[in-house]
Amino acid sequence: MTEASASLRAEAEGLSAPLPALLAEAQHLAATVVLGEHGRRRAGMGADFWQYRAAQPGDDSRAIDWRRSGRADTAFVQDKEWQTAQTVMVWVDRGRSMAFASEPKHPTKAHRARVLALAAAILLVRGGERVGMGGASGLPPRRGTTMLTRLTEALAEDQGGEYVAPDTAGMPPRSRALFVSDFLGDPAPVEHAVAEAADRGIKGALLQVLDPQEEAFPFLGRTIFESMGGGMRHETLKAGELRIRYLERLAGRKARLRDLARATGWMFSTHHTSTPPATALLWLHAALERRA
Amino acid sequence: MWTLGPLGFTAPWLLLGLVVLPILWLILRAVPPAPIRRRFPGVALLLGLEDREAQADRTPWWLMLIRIVAVGAVILGFAGPILNPREDRGGSGPLLVLLDGTWADARDWSARMDRAEALLGEATRDGRTAAVVALTTPPEGAPVFNDGEVAAQGLPNLAPRPWLPSPEADADWAEALTSVEGGFDTVWLSDGLAREGREALLQALEDKGTVTVVQAPRQVVALKPATFEEGRIVLSATRTPTGPAAEVPVAAIGLDPAGAERQLATATLAFEAGAAEAQVELELPAELRNRVTRFELPGVRSAAAVSLTDDALRRREVGLVAGGAGEREQLDLLDPLHYLREALAPNADLVEGTLSDVILANPDVIVLADVAQLAEGEAEDLSEWVEGGGLLLRFAGPRLAASDLARTEEDPLLPVRLRAGGRSVGGAMSWGEPKALAPFTEDSPFFGLAIPEDVTVNAQVVAQPDPTLAERVIAQLTDGTPLVTRKALGEGQVVLFHVTANAEWSSLPLSGLFVSMLERLSVSSRAAPATAAELEGTTWVPESALDAYGELRQLDTQPGVPGERIAEGRAGPDLPPGLYSGEDRRIAVNAVDADMVLEPASWPESVILEGLDVVRELPLKGALLAFALALLLADVLASLALSGRLRGQQRVAKVAAVVLATMLWHPAPGQAQEAAQAPSTEAAPDPEADAFALAATEQVVLAHVVTGDREVDDLAEAGLLGLSNVLWARTAVEPAQPKGVDIETDELSFFPFLYWPVTADMAIPSRQAYEKLNRYLATGGMILFDTRDADMGGFGTATPEGERLQAIARGLDIPPLEPIPQDHVLTRTFYLLQEFPGRYNDPEIWVEASPPDAEQAEGMPFRDLNDGVTPVVVGGNDWAAAWAVDQTGMPLLPVGRGMAGEEQREYAMRFGVNLVMHVLTGNYKSDQVHVPALLERLGQ
Fold this sequence. Notes:
The complex is a heterodimer. Chain A contains nine helices and ten strands.
């Protein structure tokens, strides 16, 4: 093996190392939620009973309903009511501002956002939905577990730029969308993207992931604040003085996003990295399972 | 020095630095703290927010104040401030610091030393020469004036003495003062007691210059020697100055029976208002009184507060034993002990009872009146007691005369041999007159006692003539027959009165001579103090001495003091207070005589009187600098907090801890380390040991000793595994995975059973391991020693393993062994077995020998053997090899040949099962022995 290929291999391994972990974490998280329902009045993938039928070759032996089969000579399989697939497009902010964690015990916002998006995707895939990733470098919606692997890989990539706005390119009409970001950047592109999506009949959810420090602004004294990429800076002589005004602005930003969601029929929620992700996932699940 | 109220400054010009402070204020105020850089994604929300106050972030005023105060403290500190600077006394020329140095000084000696030091320091500063003199130990001739520092170096050598200076000594020294050329000033640190000769000395001092007297008004209490009146101890004390009513506790101190010094009794001396004397009577049981070594006023550090007691307080204890007492009703006057009681009771404490009781009381004297026969043990106890210093006083009588005691052989408890029957003179049936006493010879202890005319002897026991008889006689009759004989026995002595203790045989007990004789024999104590006449010409050696603080010290070799000096009394340099021992008694010399009167010293108006207290100079430099440092540290913390660099409670705590640790680093680091390590070594839980203990105790674990030979150890483990499997399958015992045990390091007590394969080259266990093994064997463990050689040596020779086993077993506490008997409980604890094969089948298995008295009862299948489990089983059948299985449960090694071999393996297994059962259930199978008896009782 040549030296170059060896280094490439090592790099690739290093790169792929977090992927299974991310996937596993997301799966672990997804396991806490029981699949939901939207029945299609025919046999198919679903949670609700539809009918018994004789088992055929190719049926999973786990699928055999032993209670029913016990009453007859042939094995029976329980058909579930088919629940139609939705298409859900996931978009996760992978800008530099997301790479922030105020304390080592908290994960970075980016990590939490990825875990949540992936967990939601797992739930959706398990529920028979098609999942894709929005954006220019996105993935067309597909179903099945291979999609999860691809999604994981795609999510692991970082994007440049301090703040990144959602991209609606490649989102099929009348699908559903999930935008996960801190929404701290310029709100105009976000509004634009959501409005455009709404025009195409896309409904969805906005999940704002914030670090507790961003929520509390616990700073005092003379401070120079820099954005994660160092592109923006703001100097103050008394950080403590700024606190109230900052919090006002943050509340304003949230209100703006909520108004946007209300106007377009989307859902909006804020999640903090200091809290367990399960509640956020539940919210996501409920938001995406809403019947159209 | 520049003073400002009670403050003085050594470098006052430095205070000018304080002017700089306002400037500093302005400078500090203008400089804002440096900014911190923070990464913060929310910065987008901040853009455009203006600071409302352009210069808001200045150093806050309180932080400035901290800094200014810190700088101010530094400036003040370096200016050398001193609180209460000492003012100059003035005066020039030499300075004499005079101390009394008596016991009355002892209580506040350190204050006196401080004062003297202060005076000398002052003299040094003023360039005066100085001298320090204690009147109790005045220097030879005139005082030598030296540089103040030199004089101060001599201060530690001065100590108070437990006596008062005599007027003669004062006068002599006053005389010596006149030879000093030129004048000098005197500061006299007085003890506050008036005494003769003080005026003359004061006069001599005043002739030379001004005299300042330093005297503290305070009360001095002196305890006078205890006296003994009518069985009670009388304690008295005197005080000065007389004042209001006061109560002073007194304690009697002595050795308790355990030999530790402790307070035996307490009393309270009540001084009435205006009275200088107080008295208290103390009644103590004789036993306790004899133990008292001194009286003292608790809490007063002075020789005058301690009064030593000597033999004068002590009453001797006399044990009285009469032969045949209680045999018949007796008139008091015929009681053999009546006259002794009368003679001894005033001066001694009497103990009566049987001889064994009396010896237990350990009296000084035991009197046996007409006791001939002593019980076996009593005679030995009595001789032991006499040899330890007791005085055995025996009286003759009909019983002694009739007995065969000391006829042919000298009895150790009788001074002479006795003739049979005694003799009777002057009776109705005999010739001659009753005999009178011959005058006492010079070497007799009775020498000098007058013999009353009317003392006659009618009957006596007669000594047999022996070579030693003459030297043992200390009193005889006019016809030369011995009346009192004595011999030394060990440190004590045995004295025999050849007559009775009552008036049956002689009129001696009726006379005053009897009492005097008893007194001379030290039977009764001398309550009176030694008279001058007695003391004349004697020499007394100090045993222990009292110092001025009232502490008693043992002395080793000190020159003796003539008795005349002691008779004179009044402690002094040539007669320090203490205990003096003479030939046969001890005399206490106390600092305070019985007739001492204490009066406060009065001084003429010409002297200047001062109090003893000195206001100490207190340099404040160090404190101020420390204060400044603390402020600067606080400033560091405050600055960090202000600039937001100190975030979160934990970090504040951490920084504070670091700061505190740096500040408190001062105590010796070695100690701190020790203190930190001590508990950790003590209570450190050892997780490894815990895990080991848990693994060994949660289930039954069979264990083998790790020999160091890998092959043997593996085989032993495999063998125990096989045995464990069999036990699991066939019995209620369900053992866990067997374990190897290192007898040097592992705890053995967790294992009920150890299999010890002996190898020829196994190391002998260490001492600790032996201790552990012995404890293991003694507390119910069992070891199966396996030499694995089928005892091939046999017939007196030994294999290497056998020799090794002997070497190992030498340090073990193993009971006698015997080849396993046919009815041993091992043969039936689970299986009925008669042989115990392993890989070999050698019948020689050794177990603890059954007791020699174990017998097979009629009709019983087994002997009624001992309780308990044999601690060791010794054999050489290589059991582990027969038991050993691999992980799949298949036997590892072949045993024997074919099916016969497998049968032998089965028996080996059964032996193992029996053995483990024996270990776990003890000898309960032995109880089968009782089955026939039980059946019979049940009527079946």
